[in-house]
């Protein structure tokens, strides 16, 4: 029996909804930068696409072959469930991997006793070897701590203005939702409907997250 036009439209709509839900749940997620903790690399009003498949666990060898998958690397910008309130999503950069000994000395990050290349870090008050240590300020002096198995140490690029692992501890691998890929839209903070076009940061659109 030939399907009616209405039924064909309904089936097409349902398939589209199912595909959209699949993509939203398992493949990609949109994320909006809500704070300045990743400035200047990621700014308030940046809208990102997050790859949720890259770090997803695979159940079989076939899945590992067919699905793009890799381990989390130091330097990855990831979106995750905030450990102190899992209903909220945070975004930070991975600094310490399982087994790493992490410490800050005069704001400089050391991994296993060696300073790391940190090109994305931004400081309101730059690190200085001559500055006296202030042990009570974790923005300057922290650790050393060893990252436990299946956990990460994460930090915001805006090192003087970021609530990160220095304050709330390690991030469980199970809380990682995905890796930030690129900016698909960006608008100035506080832009109104009337000034929408003028508030769009055209130069940032499609910028890859580094």
Characterize the structure shown.
This protein is α+β, with helices and mostly antiparallel strands and 210 residues long. The protein has a single domain, classed as Umud Fragment, subunit A, CATH 2.10.109. The protein is built from 4 helices and 11 strands. The strands form 2 sheets. A 7-stranded antiparallel β-sheet has the order 1-2-11-3-4-9-10. Strands 7-6-5-8 form a 4-stranded antiparallel β-sheet, with no helix packed on it. Strand 3 and strand 4 form a beta hairpin. The longest helix has 23 residues. It is globular, with a radius of gyration of 21 Å.
What are the key terms here?
7-stranded antiparallel β-sheet; alpha+beta; globular; Umud Fragment, subunit A; 4-stranded antiparallel β-sheet; 4 helices; 18% helix; 210 residues
Order of helices and strands: HEEHEEEEEEEHEEH
**CATH topology description:** Umud Fragment, subunit A
What composes the largest sheet?
Answer: 7 strands, antiparallel
Biggest sheet: strand arrangement: 1-2-11-3-4-9-10
Content-based structural category? alpha+beta
What percentage of amino acids are in beta strands? 25-35%
The CATH homologous superfamily: Umud Fragment, subunit A
User: Average pLDDT value?
Assistant: 83
CATH architecture: Ribbon
CATH class: Mainly Beta
Number of helices: 4
- Give me the count of strands: 11
Rg, alpha carbons = 21 Å
Overall 3D shape: globular
């Amino acid at each position: 029996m030939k399907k009616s036009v209405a039924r064909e439209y309904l089936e097409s709509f349902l398939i589209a909804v199912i595909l959209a839900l699949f993509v939203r749940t398992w493949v990609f997620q949109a994320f909006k930068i809500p704070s300045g903790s990743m400035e200047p690399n990621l700014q308030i009003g940046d809208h990102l696409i997050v790859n949720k498949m890259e770090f997803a666990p695979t159940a079989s060898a076939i899945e590992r072959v067919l699905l793009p998958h890799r381990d989390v690397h130091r330097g990855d910008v990831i979106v995750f469930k905030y450990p102190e309130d899992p209903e909220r999503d945070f975004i930070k950069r991975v600094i310490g991997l399982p087994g790493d000994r992490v410490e800050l000395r005069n704001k400089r990050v050391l991994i296993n006793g060696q300073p790391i290349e940190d090109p994305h870090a931004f400081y309101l008050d730059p690190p200085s070897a001559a500055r006296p240590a202030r042990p009570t300020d974790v923005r300057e002096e922290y650790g050393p701590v060893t990252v436990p198995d299946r956990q990460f140490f994460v930090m915001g690029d805006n090192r003087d203005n970021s609530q990160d692992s220095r304050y709330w501890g390690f991030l469980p691998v199970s809380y990682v939702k995905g890796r930030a890929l690129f900016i698909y839209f960006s608008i100035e903070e506080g832009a109104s409907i009337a000034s929408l076009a003028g508030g769009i940061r055209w130069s940032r659109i499609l910028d890859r997250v580094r």
